[in-house]
Amino acid sequence: MIVCSCKIKSDRQIADAVQTGVETFADLCDHVDISNDCGQCARLTKTIFEQCLETSGKKTKAKKKEKRRKP
After folding, report:
1. pLDDT given for residue 27 in this prediction
2. What percent of the chain has pLDDT over 90?
3. Domain count of the fold of the chain
């Protein structure tokens, strides 16, 4: 499913990033180049990312507010 319509990024790309070792939301945004434009997809992207981490057996990092780096 398309998650980010600005950059045409899918949930599969998020899952692939988790499988290659991405462990934080900020790293995901940089690695996949998602949620960096308008930000409309940020909440859904983070939800899918956390589900992928749990599915892969990785624990989510502490539930603290993580500041994203702007490109």
Report:
1. 94
2. 69
3. 1
Cβ-proximal residues to 10 (8 Å cutoff; 6+ apart), any chain: 1, 2, 3
Structural domain containing residue 42: 2-55
Q: Is 1 exposed, middle or buried (0-12, 13-18, 19+ CB in 10 A)?
A: exposed
Angle between helices 42-55 and 11-19 (to 10 degrees): 40
CATH number of 47's domain = 1.10.10.1100
CA distance 71 to 65: 19
63 lies in some domain: no
- Whether residue 48 contacts residue 58, with contact meaning beta carbons closer than 8 Å, is answered with no
Question: Contact at 8 Å (CB) between 13 and 54?
Answer: no
Answer whether 0.90 is exceeded by the pTM: no
Q: Do residues 14 and 54 touch, judged by C-beta distance below 8 A?
A: no
